[in-house]
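hiii so um. not sure if this is the right channel but i have a protein structure encoded as tokens and i wanna go backwards to a sequence. like what aa goes where. can anyone help
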């Protein structure tokens, strides 16, 4: 086995016009660190080519803040192909090539030339040399080997066994003393740290559909909890306002349409607006504030869904609503505030192009503008909330960014950020108690054949596994699948997301593997968003409704990762950062290839329950009411092989009497 880039230097590729490019990430290395960064990149290249490539790499580092190795990018659009079009010695090796290309194709990737899938900085790997070597490794991989990938680098192929993972991935798992944005930025420039986001570096992103379902669930349940909407109702006649139309945030208008709301979503990057408009994920576009709200008011009066992209800054959008006394029912934000000073948040008063120029020419001035804009953003939200708007942080580190910018009054306890903020995270109020605590989370599957008819068959099979009379969540999920084809959710390869609980996921997974075994469909990749019940420890998002003090611990995500490795998931990933930034989250996910075998059935029977119930158990131990109820039922129904430790709940009055006699 020989895996190498070879000594033939490929021609420098052309960059297609109209494809977004990542901004300069900032070059801050010392001369000694720069030398190390160059030597690190040249490790992938035969020595005969170093003299020619070293100047290229140095130019990339100085002008882009990263060494991407553009010369080694395959030409054109990396569209995912049917699995049979890929070379490989095992099915999993070919399946992961489908997923990587799906993450990097022009239709999905935010900055495809810089290997950024979504979230401003979330990369499949660091550079194109890594991409080519990973692809070669996957072509050579057998079902008795495991590929180890560390921060984008293919460390090597190691002997294992058929029921072991085929790929294990970690990204940016920094030692605690250095687990901060500054040291990570240095490490990324030096080519030793990769920001995997969540499903970018885990090769499991399926386009914005992956968050549409979660946003749909969030909006519906926010309406039920805060606006008095009945369990079987929708958001007709209600206005939702937010910002962001990128890879993740672009789901917002589509989800609002499906929930029958009226939505206005602000976006400063015209190319992102154009992408969502062309895809049909937002209905109307306007740069005029009055026109945006006028269209919204007309749709509200008709009680018809309507989505509007406002081509401008969200602060302007909100300040206009406050001045004109326009009622906003639901309010959020989905700018990439985990990278608030790296371009993820555009300050009010400047254009998107000015933002990009300042990032390169004057990053300190840009930081000052961001802080001032966050202050204005905070003040206008405070005024709108006082008038009755329900604002929720959408887990993008928005309120943490405000706190870090010096807006200390956003702290709930008035001292620090450990008890969260004065406005709730959507997980605190909605996703946690109504979904995660029951075990519902973003289960997903990809039809590796690339055939739309396979997706239709799997949709129908999954619908048949759902008991709509069990809980309201199940009825929502059934309706989601029923309307999925009509709502044209697929971007990239044929994939679907479905919020399901532990038993539901296991039942559907086993049904899919049976369908593959019978030849009804081609191979299927199962996975989930890391933003799930068990996969992520993040005190400002996924674990924000865990209030026993363990919200700052990362035990759950690491145990989930280790347990999935032990049970033989095909791919297992663990990252630092996620959607909230380096040092603020540890998150993990999996990929599982259904090949129709009994071996896969056995893995699914063990791993699917573990992957969910480990998190439900942790939430139950934190004394979350719905998680305790779910754990009690699980202990009774699975007593032969499982037992979740249950808490005794102290009496609050007795505790308070003791502390305050």
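sure thing!! here u go:
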């Amino acid at each position: 086995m020989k895996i190498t880039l070879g000594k033939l230097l490929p021609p420098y590729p052309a960059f297609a016009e109209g494809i977004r490019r990542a901004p300069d990430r900032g070059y801050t290395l010392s001369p000694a660190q720069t030398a190390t960064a160059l030597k690190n990149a040249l490790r992938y290249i035969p020595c005969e080519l170093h003299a020619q490539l070293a100047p290229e790499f140095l130019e990339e580092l100085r002008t882009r803040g990263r060494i991407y190795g553009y010369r080694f990018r395959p030409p054109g659009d990396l569209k995912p192909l049917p699995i049979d079009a890929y070379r490989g010695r095992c099915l999993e090796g070919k399946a992961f090539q489908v997923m990587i290309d799906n993450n990097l194709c022009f239709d999905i990737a935010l900055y495809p030339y810089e290997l950024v899938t979504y979230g401003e900085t979330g990369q499949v790997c660091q550079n194109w040399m890594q991409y080519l070597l990973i692809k070669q490794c996957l072509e050579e991989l057998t079902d008795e080997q495991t590929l180890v990938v560390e921060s984008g680098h293919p460390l090597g192929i190691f002997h294992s066994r058929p029921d072991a993972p085929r790929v294990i991935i970690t990204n940016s798992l920094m030692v605690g003393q250095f687990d901060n944005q500054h040291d990570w930025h240095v490490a990324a420039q030096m080519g030793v740290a990769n920001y995997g986001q969540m499903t970018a570096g885990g090769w499991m992103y399926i386009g914005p559909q992956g968050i549409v379902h979660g946003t749909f669930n969030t909006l519906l349940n926010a309406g039920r909890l805060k606006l008095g909407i009945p369990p079987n109702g929708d958001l007709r006649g209600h206005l939702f306002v937010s910002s962001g139309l990128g890879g993740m945030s672009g789901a917002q208008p589509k989800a609002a349409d499906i929930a029958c709301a009226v939505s206005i979503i602000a976006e400063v990057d015209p190319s992102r607006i154009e992408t969502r408009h062309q895809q049909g994920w937002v209905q109307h576009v306007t740069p005029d504030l009055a026109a945006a709200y006028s269209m919204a008011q007309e749709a509200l009066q008709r009680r018809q869904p309507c989505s509007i992209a406002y081509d401008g800054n969200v602060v302007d959008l909100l300040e206009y609503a406050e001045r004109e006394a326009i009622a906003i029912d639901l309010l959020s934000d989905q700018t990439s505030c985990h990278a608030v000073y790296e371009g993820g948040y555009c300050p009010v008063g400047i254009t998107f192009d000015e933002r990009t120029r300042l990032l390169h020419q004057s990053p300190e001035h840009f930081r000052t503008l961001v802080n001032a804009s966050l202050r204005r953003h905070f003040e206008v939200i405070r005024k709108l909330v006082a008038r009755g708007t329900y604002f929720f942080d959408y887990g993008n580190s928005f309120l943490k960014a405000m706190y870090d910018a010096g807006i200390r009054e956003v702290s709930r306890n008035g001292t620090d950020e450990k008890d969260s903020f004065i406005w709730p995270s959507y997980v605190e109020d909605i996703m946690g108690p109504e979904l995660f605590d029951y075990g519902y989370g973003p289960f997903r599957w990809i039809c590796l054949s690339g055939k739309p008819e396979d997706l239709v068959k799997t949709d129908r099979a999954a619908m048949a596994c759902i008991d709509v009379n069990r809980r309201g969540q199940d009825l929502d999920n059934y309706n989601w699948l029923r309307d999925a084809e009509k709502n044209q959710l697929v971007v990239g390869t044929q994939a679907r997301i479905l919020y399901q609980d532990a038993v539901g996921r296991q039942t559907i997974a086993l049904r899919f593997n049976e369908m593959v075994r019978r030849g009804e469909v081609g191979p299927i990749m199962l996975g989930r968003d890391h933003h799930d019940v068990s996969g992520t420890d993040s005190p400002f998002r996924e674990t924000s409704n865990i209030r026993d003090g363990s919200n700052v611990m990362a035990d759950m995500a690491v145990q989930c990762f280790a347990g999935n490795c032990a049970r033989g998931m095909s791919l297992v990933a663990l990252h630092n950062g996620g959607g909230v930034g380096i040092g603020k989250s540890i998150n993990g996910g999996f990929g599982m290839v259904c090949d129709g075998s009994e071996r896969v059935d056995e893995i699914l029977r063990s791993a699917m329950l573990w992957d969910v119930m480990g998190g439900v158990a942790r939430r139950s131990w934190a004394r979350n009411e719905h998680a305790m109820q779910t754990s009690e039922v699980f202990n009774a129904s699975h007593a032969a092989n499982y037992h979740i430790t249950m808490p005794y709940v102290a009496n609050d009055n007795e505790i308070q009497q003791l502390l305050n006699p």
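oh and The longest strand covers residues 586-594.
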